[in-house]
Specification:
Strand order of the largest sheet: 1-3-7-6-5-4-8-9-2
Helix content: 10-25%
Oligomer: single chain
Enzyme class: transferase
CATH class of the largest domain: Alpha Beta
Shape: globular
CATH topology of the largest domain: Coagulation Factor XIII, Chain A, domain 2
Number of domains: 4
CATH superfamily of the largest domain: Transglutaminase-like
Radius of gyration: 29 Å
Number of helices: 14
Strand content: 35-45%
Distance between the termini: 45 Å
Keywords: Acyltransferase, Calcium, Metal-binding, Transferase
GO molecular function, one term: metal ion binding
Largest sheet: 9 strands, mixed
Pfam family, one: Transglut_core
Cofactor: Ca(2+)
Length: 687
């Protein structure tokens, strides 16, 4: 190459368009593997003769670890390795098409060029990502609409609440925000795997299976000073309440700004949303999944044991638990290690629940393997299988004697209404049948038995076949809690306890009732109500008993999860105990967003957010938090004056949209009486 340094044209716009990377805000070339990109050199003299290119990544690039490639100009693109093809040449410039292999290591590459015997000259850096649009890639997704949703969509909807009452909220994944890609690359370089053996770690970065597992460990702070610190105590001093976040960008930026100290605090949906951001950013199709009545089986016996005292109080005994809901991820890639039928959606879970291989990581577990009960296949099959299939055992525990008595077992409780956002629409799709055969069907029980057998549990106590003396005793009564009226924060909670005598003789029943505020994991926080009644039920009689828990009774004690557990333990004279239980999630009052006028690129538009205080007392410490990709930079925080009873507040702020298209504006309103009232609004931005 001539003495004058040739200038490089990276053709950022054209390459980004071809490689589906136009949404990144970066001055650096970002391309996808297994697909050609074009660069040109200006001010070169007859360079096409014997030009050699060197592409390298990681700390010690080598051909053996496939982190170093040297290639010269050839007439056609290589199917196997890296290659360069001359596209056009003129007296002052040369244009070259460079292709990477379908299974190239992803990450930031350094590109140099060497002419003849002179020493290599650095051309600059580029970032190589996974390519779901390319049929040779492990993450290839044939459906283009799904690629758009699971890689390019930066807005998501996460489902929460409980199986009787599913709620949802928006989330700004923000995978294309400035610097997020760099932060995702830093996450990989801070993992335990990289710290222990950087060369081997980087050489494995061609494999979505490997990276999915590593990143499931890095998104939680356990073991490795990862991104988010979990907190399920109900007390969030020194950090942000997990339910107050509205997007991943702020979390990832905070992690970097603090010198990579874990961000406080997260719960399951935060871990899942951040992992979605990181994997979509790197090009692995990913979505969040919500499982309702999700089991956390700590001892690996595919069953969850819950204990109650004689008053009906739920006891914190044993490590097993059932969460109202739990959010994890599915990522799309092939499983060459298991075989073709196990490819497709793979479960990853970044919430630190149980160790796997000595650290808090979970997956990838093939969703197909989970449905078929093939729990021995990599990775973490038994834990994921239990999350959707465990049997529930309810015990009465006497702390004085240490005696436990089985009240009843239930095999249809766990893993309901498994949900994800629809492709291209803001709707819920139910994917339960992709995880399990129909609840209560012979096939579902057969798969459960198969899983138990594979885990060597078939000789041990089978929860579906209780002991002989327990089989003979059928309950004499049945009970349930019915909701009467609305389930809203700020209003009294009205329920009916319905008891029915199943026998043809009269029964006397002593009922001990309690209500506790809980976290969404059903961890009890405060008792808010208790009562006991004694009733006589005539043969086959059904009776209803109204229960009222007044707002002032629960207001101080309610957690930001807005969940209450009501339990009635019914002691039937000369019969077995019956446990009646209901987990209730209250709704926040609504909040209204209006866009005032037309939203245009680079033009101011005002938005008005209105909230009416629905309760009879003043609310104070009101804060409005707003974010939305392409609508405003970062997160806007506005303080709002206190609101008297029934008073309406209306707050205006302005947006300057930066890009045309359908965008989502996310709003989160909090005050001392209502936590994290969330809503979102679709904004159509025109040029």
């Amino acid at each position: 190459i001539a003495a004058t340094q040739p200038s490089t044209n990276w053709h950022l716009k054209e390459n980004a368009r071809e490689h589906h990377t136009s949404k990144f805000s970066s001055e650096e070339l970002i391309v996808r593997r297994g697909q050609a990109f074009t660069i040109s050199f200006n001010g070169t003299e007859r360079p096409e003769q014997n030009l050699i290119f060197i592409a390298e990544t990681g700390p010690k690039p080598s051909k053996a670890t496939r982190t170093l490639a040297t290639f010269d100009i050839s007439s056609t693109a290589s199917k196997e390795g890296w290659s360069a093809v001359l596209q056009s040449t003129s007296s002052s410039s040369v244009s070259i098409s460079i292709s990477s292999p379908h299974n190239a290591v992803i990450g930031r590459y350094r590109l140099s060029v060497q002419s003849g015997s002179s020493s290599p000259q650095s051309v600059g850096t580029f970032v190589l990502l996974f390519n779901p649009w390319s049929s040779g890639d492990d993450v290839f997704m044939p459906n283009k609409a799904e690629c758009e949703e699971y890689v390019l969509e930066d807005f998501g909807i996460i489902f929460a609440g409980n199986k009787n009452h599913i709620s949802s909220f928006g989330w700004n994944f923000g995978q294309f925000q400035r610097d997020i890609l760099n932060i995702c690359l830093s996450i990989m370089d801070r993992s335990l795997y990289y710290r222990q053996d950087p060369v081997t770690d980087v050489s494995h970065r061609h494999d979505p299976r490997y990276l999915g597992r590593v990143l499931s460990a890095m998104v939680n702070a356990n073991d490795d000073q990862g991104v988010v610190l979990g907190n399920w105590s109900g007390k969030y001093e020194g950090g942000k309440n997990p339910s107050s976040w509205t997007g991943s960008g702020e979390i990832l930026q905070s992690w970097k700004k603090s010198g990579f100290k874990p961000v406080k605090y997260g719960q399951c949906w935060v871990f899942a949303a951040v992992l979605t951001t990181v994997l979509r950013c790197l090009g692995i199709p990913t979505r969040t999944i919500t499982n309702f009545s999700s089991a956390h089986d700590a001892d690996g016996n595919l069953r969850v044991d819950e204990f109650y005292d004689a008053d009906g109080n739920h006891l914190e005994r044993g490590a097993d638990s059932v969460w109202n809901f739990h959010v994890w991820n599915e990522s799309w890639f092939t499983r060459n290690d298991l075989g073709p039928s196990y490819s497709g959606w793979q479960v990853l879970d970044a919430t630190p629940q149980e160790e796997s291989g000595g650290i808090y990581q979970c997956g990838p577990a093939s969703r197909y393997a989970i449905k078929e009960g093939e729990v021995e296949l990599d990775y973490d099959g038994p834990f994921v299988f239990a999350e959707v299939n465990a049997d529930c055992m309810y015990w009465n525990y006497d702390s004085a004697t240490g005696k436990k008595t089985l009240i009843f077992s239930k095999s249809t409780e766990i893993g309901a209404s498994i949900s994800t956002k629809a492709v291209g629409r803001d709707d819920r799709v139910d994917v339960t049948s992709d995880y399990k055969y129909e609840e209560g069907s012979a096939k579902e029980r057969e798969v459960f038995k198969k899983a138990r057998k594979k885990l060597g549990l078939e000789d041990k106590f089978d929860p579906t076949a209780p002991k002989q003396e327990e089989i003979e005793q059928k309950p004499d009564i049945s009970g349930k809690f019915k909701v009467a009226g609305s389930l809203e924060v700020g209003k009294d909670l009205n329920l009916l306890l319905v008891l029915e005598n199943l026998q043809s003789d009269a029964k006397t029943v002593n009922v001990n009732m309690t209500a506790w505020t809980t976290l969404y994991t059903r961890r009890r926080v405060n008792q808010i109500w208790k009562d006991s009644i004694s009733v006589t039920l005539a043969p086959k009689e059904e009776k209803q008993f109204p229960i009222k828990i007044k707002y002032p009774e629960y207001q101080q004690q309610l957690t930001t999860d807005k969940t209450i557990q009501v339990t009635a333990l019914c002691h039937v004279e000369d019969g077995i105990q019956v446990l009646v239980q209901r987990n209730i999630t209250l709704d926040n009052p609504g909040i209204d967003i209006q866009v005032l006028g037309e939203a245009k690129v680079n033009k101011e538009v005002f938005v008005e957010v209105a909230f009416t205080n629905p309760i009879a007392t003043e609310v104070k410490d009101c804060v409005l938090q707003v974010e939305g990709s392409d609508l405003l930079q970062g997160v806007l925080e506005l303080r709002i004056p206190p609101l008297k009873a029934s008073e309406k507040s209306s707050t205006k702020f302005k947006l300057i949209p930066s890009e045309a298209g359908l965008k989502h504006l996310l709003v989160n309103f909090s005050c001392d009486k209502f936590a994290d009232i969330k809503t979102f609004k679709m904004v159509n931005v025109i040029n």
